[in-house]
Design the sequence.
């Protein structure tokens, strides 16, 4: 039995007393006046993109240093932290707005270049062009290009993201100034059925993946009988690489909350839940803050805007299960049960949360609702296609020049997205495929570049819209490997309830793994198709029903690649390691590794001593002590989590030190061989010292040269083993032949 | 309750509203294979074996959770359904140890029956090699989770029938399995060892430490261990009681037993120390006596005591009716209120 709602966990239950009656119209007007004053005032404004993505790219440092830098330059400016504008490739983004001029946006700003940017634009009479990205907003700034006219923004239409990056998400006035809560005000003046009709007319379809008409879904719940109804906002964004919902919640929390209030009013729910990933702490914080502000102006709590309609919103944080994005599993999770899907029917609209009629809507869907109510259904259905009106956000990632968050009208072609908004394939390589819909979607090849992106066409091509993951692949991507990657994810995230998903995805994964490993067998492709077909038909929920999609579509469109793996033992995408051609010049001379077993180390230091002696002139322990320079050990004893262990070079396959070395002194000697530093070529720049994740290379001779483990290559040549291994008395270090 | 008419495999079938397709089909003798379905439990829809085709519904809905509707047209078996069912069983087999002859569930195994019923000999898939938790910490049953088919009947039994909830599914993906709190061993959980989960397990994943031999004859009786009065079916072989199981027809327990009824209810029957006649102490020695003789002696002695000298204790192990009679006897016949009961605390 489900717990009654009052016993379920509640993250916050605000007191509803002490609410002030505020005239919303007056408040909006004053917010607009303030906004105008801000925009047209005499203040210089510096905007810093401070959503999680921006912070991760370094915006935190910029925000911390900005006041100091401004003070040093004697510039007076307002600092405005804003949400994500979606251009991940350009983060951290800093915009400077002078009075009466459009915002000048600077890309990939670091705290080193920040002073010169500020000084350039505000003191020396012109934005330093080398850092300028473009201008944002109305009007021109000299000859600088307008971002809105550039390929990256021109095809985009922002409805769900309309405020992201424009307003400070913590300020209610900013939201109100952009016609915030006008939609709710209008909705509360209508009958619930009229609100539903408005949404039906707009043609809005569920943006979480299914694409079910939102208005229709609401009407089912409206008609269902029940003393209590619930609205649930699904913010359990779990697709790998997807961050649309997070950006909206962090950059414009009020838009989602307003949409929720409208939806709750339409279906007659007095309690609404936001089911959000616990991995989105900033979004949770923004939501809680925004909910406090909603109470201030009377759009949350009792009697919203005097309409007699009550609404409480509760936040429920999910513990991180992909399947909880499925509505019935999400409902089970809110009820405090294990997040496992339930068979439908009964549909949640009739029997959902705690057995009561419920609606589960995605963040982006709700993010569109306020705009629809504010501007009208006609306005909304003017975007996109007849079948799929409106816009859709995508998290554009993979081998593309401009990865980021985009919002484009439905019906745009893949080509416009990849080559327009995305700026083309990385390094000018040929486009190979695009994965839409994340791990549940399909892989679409070049022939679909000119296909309009909308629900029906994607389904016809064997893929889905999904929540909006969009991964671009170039010719150096192995589609078998991609299928294996996505299946690894879905297999791990299967809840285990139904057999086809639990065991079937594992079986498919095992077969894909052996194909990638060069051990594929004749008949494997057919077996994958058979498994995939049955899993799709027989699985309980959307996770299992779509899990085979990446595999089935890659087989459909790239069958020859699978065949190459199995029959020719080659990987056309040059990705699967076991199938890469062995470089004939890079012969496998030293096929061995030093294996270290941490709990066997007594920290005796014999390895360190032996290493130093082995790298001395004399190779004699007595004489080595008097050499100049003193021979240096390449292995050292290092405390790691409470135990001391010998640490030396791992001789990585794709070694960071080799990648950064500007002179080519640091080099890998063939596949499986040691990474060696050529002293004659090394200039002692120490790039490798910085790059090595294990802290192995050390600079010596006052920074002129680098020492690192050479796997005792001279001893190996003579048929010996590394000195440290030979000296180790406890078998902590062992020589393992490959 | 309203009656609906639907078509199953071309046959017109009448069913009550609210019934599932599976129930309606079973009622007219149409067999649909199942694994996670159990008549005692709420439908779960996990094993995907009872899938059918319903006109107008997408895909292959499970018949155990899909309710009948008037005019519904159902197909329970065709090539597509059979292929999918076979694949589901093949997947189960690929995830199952090949150890039938050493398994306590052998010949009483849902998976074996399904394989035979669907004509599957060899699954032709890479074995998953899942190891599964082994737990022999309980004195009366063994858990071998490598043989678990994840039908969750044990979990549901523990929650829905027993009401203890000692186990729940934990983990995700292939690693999902029923486990006690914090995946500790079952002995350190709230399990009451009633063995109800073992009875509902379709495979050898849950088995009794000492499985009962197959009885030659069975007889219905009432469990003697407490006053609840559960119906119990005892089985005998060579004149000795060898097995006990819950009587599903009993209105009291509907087939459910507790640890005492299931594991301890019959061992004393043929025990050498068991009293089979009243005993009377004569000259310091207990001597066998007839009931008439014994009751006569008790009556004589009771007549001799004053009410204040008499007191009676009664027990929760006897039925309510017996407890009532003893207090009536104490108050009405012995004229005293000195009556007490072990469950009074």
Sequence:
């Amino acid at each position: 039995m489900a717990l009654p709602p009052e016993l379920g966990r509640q993250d916050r239950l605000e007191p509803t007393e002490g609410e002030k009656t505020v005239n919303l119209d007056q408040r909006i007007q004053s917010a607009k006046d303030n906004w105008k004053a801000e925009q047209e005032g005499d203040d210089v404004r510096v905007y810093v993109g401070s959503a999680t993505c921006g912070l991760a790219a370094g915006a935190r440092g910029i925000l911390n240093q900005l006041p100091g830098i401004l003070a040093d330059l004697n510039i007076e400016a307002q600092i405005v932290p804003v949400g994500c504008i979606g251009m991940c490739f350009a983060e951290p983004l800093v915009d400077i707005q002078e009075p009466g001029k459009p915002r000048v946006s600077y890309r990939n700003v670091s705290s080193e270049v920040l002073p010169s940017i500020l000084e350039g634009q505000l003191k020396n009479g012109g934005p330093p062009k080398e850092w300028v990205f473009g201008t944002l907003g109305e009007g021109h700034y000299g000859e600088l290009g307008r971002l809105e006219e550039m390929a990256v923004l021109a095809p985009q239409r922002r409805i769900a993201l309309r405020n992201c990056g424009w307003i400070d998400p913590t300020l209610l006035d900013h939201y109100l100034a952009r016609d915030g809560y006008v939609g709710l005000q209008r909705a509360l003046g209508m009958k619930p059925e009229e609100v539903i009709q408005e949404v039906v007319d707009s043609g809005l379809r569920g943006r979480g993946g299914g694409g079910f008409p939102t208005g229709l879904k609401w009407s089912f719940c409206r008609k269902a009988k029940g003393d209590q109804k619930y609205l649930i906002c699904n913010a359990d964004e779990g697709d790998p690489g997807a961050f649309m919902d997070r950006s909206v919640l962090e950059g414009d929390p009020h838009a989602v909350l307003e949409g929720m209030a409208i939806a709750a009013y339409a279906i007659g729910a007095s309690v609404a839940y936001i089911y959000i990933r616990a991995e989105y702490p900033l979004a949770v914080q923004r939501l809680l803050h925004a909910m406090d502000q909603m109470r201030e102006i009377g759009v949350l709590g009792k009697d919203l805007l005097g309409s007699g309609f009550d609404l409480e919103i509760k936040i429920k944080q999910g513990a991180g299960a992909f399947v909880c994005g499925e509505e019935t599993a999400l409902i089970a999770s809110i009820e405090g049960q294990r997040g496992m899907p339930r068979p439908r029917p009964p549909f949640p609209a009739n029997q959902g949360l705690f057995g009561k009629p419920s609606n589960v809507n995605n963040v982006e869907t709700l993010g569109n609702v306020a705009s629809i109510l504010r501007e009208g259904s006609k306005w909304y259905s003017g975007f996109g296609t007849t079948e799929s009106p409106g816009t859709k956000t995508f998290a554009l990632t993979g081998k593309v020049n401009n990865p980021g968050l985009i919002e484009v009208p439905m019906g745009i072609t893949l080509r416009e997205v990849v080559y327009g908004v995305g700026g083309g394939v990385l390094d000018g390589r040929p486009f190979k495929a695009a994965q839409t819909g994340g791990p549940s979607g399909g892989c679409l090849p070049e022939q679909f570049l000119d296909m309009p992106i909308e629900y029906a066409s994607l389904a016809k091509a064997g893929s889905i819209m999904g929540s909006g993951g969009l991964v671009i692949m170039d010719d150096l991507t192995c589609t078998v490997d991609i299928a294996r990657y996505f299946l690894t994810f879905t297999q791990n995230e299967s809840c285990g309830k139904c057999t086809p998903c639990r065991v079937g995805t594992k079986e498919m994964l095992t077969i894909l793994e052996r194909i990638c490993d060069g051990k594929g067998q004749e008949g494997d492709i057919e077996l994958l198709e058979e498994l995939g077909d049955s899993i799709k038909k027989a699985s309980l929920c959307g996770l299992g029903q779509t899990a085979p999609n990446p595999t089935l579509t890659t087989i459909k469109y790239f069958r020859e690649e699978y065949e190459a793996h199995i029959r020719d033992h080659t990987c056309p995408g040059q990705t699967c390691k076991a199938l890469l051609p062995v470089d004939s010049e890079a012969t496998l001379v030293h096929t061995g590794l030093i294996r270290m077993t941490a709990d066997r180390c007594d920290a005796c230091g014999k390895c360190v001593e032996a290493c130093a002696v082995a790298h001395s002139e004399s190779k004699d322990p007595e004489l080595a002590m008097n050499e100049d320079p003193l021979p240096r050990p390449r292995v050292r004893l290092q405390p790691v989590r409470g135990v001391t262990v010998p640490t030396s070079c791992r001789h990585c396959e794709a070694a960071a030190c080799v990648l950064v070395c500007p002179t080519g002194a640091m080099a890998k000697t063939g596949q499986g061989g040691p990474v060696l530093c050529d002293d004659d070529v090394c200039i002692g720049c120490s790039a490798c010292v910085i790059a090595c994740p294990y802290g192995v290379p050390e600079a010596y001779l006052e920074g002129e040269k680098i020492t690192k483990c050479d796997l005792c290559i001279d001893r190996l040549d003579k048929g010996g083993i590394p000195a440290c291994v030979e000296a180790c008395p406890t078998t902590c270090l062992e020589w393992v032949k490959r | 309750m309203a009656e609906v008419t639907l078509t199953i495999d071309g046959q017109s079938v009448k069913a009550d509203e609210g019934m599932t397709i599976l129930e309606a089909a079973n009622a007219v003798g149409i067999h649909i294979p199942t694994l996670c379905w159990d008549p005692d439990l709420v439908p779960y829809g996990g094993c995907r074996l009872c899938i059918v085709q319903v006109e107008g519904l997408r895909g292959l809905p499970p018949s155990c959770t899909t309710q009948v509707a008037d005019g519904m047209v159902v197909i329970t078996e065709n090539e597509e359904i059979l292929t999918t069912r076979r694949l589901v069983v093949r997947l189960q087999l690929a995830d199952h140890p090949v150890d039938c002859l050493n398994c306590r569930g052998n010949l009483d195994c849902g998976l074996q029956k399904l394989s035979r019923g669907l004509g599957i000999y060899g699954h032709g898939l890479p074995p998953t090699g899942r190891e599964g938790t082994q737990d022999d910490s309980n004195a009366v049953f063994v858990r071998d989770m490598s043989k678990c088919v994840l039908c969750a009947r044990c979990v549901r039994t523990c929650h829905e029938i027993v009401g203890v909830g000692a186990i729940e599914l934990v983990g995700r993906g292939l690693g999902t399995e029923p486990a006690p709190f914090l995946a500790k061993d079952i002995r350190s959980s709230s399990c009451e060892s009633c063995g109800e989960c073992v009875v509902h397990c379709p495979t050898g994943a849950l088995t009794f430490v000492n499985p009962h031999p197959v009885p030659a004859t069975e007889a219905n009786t009432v469990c003697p261990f407490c006053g609840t009065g559960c119906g119990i079916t005892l089985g005998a072989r060579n004149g000795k009681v060898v097995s006990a199981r819950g009587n599903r027809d009993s209105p009291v327990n509907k087939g459910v037993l507790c640890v005492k009824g299931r594991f301890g209810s019959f061992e004393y029957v043929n025990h050498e120390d068991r009293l089979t006649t009243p005993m009377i102490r004569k000259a310091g020695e207990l001597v066998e006596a007839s009931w008439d003789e014994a009751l006569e002696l008790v009556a004589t002695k009771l007549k001799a005591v004053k009410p204040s000298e008499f007191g009676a204790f009664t027990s929760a192990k006897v039925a309510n009716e017996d407890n009532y009679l003893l207090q009536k006897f104490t108050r009405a016949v012995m004229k005293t209120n000195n009556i007490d009961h072990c469950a009074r605390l």
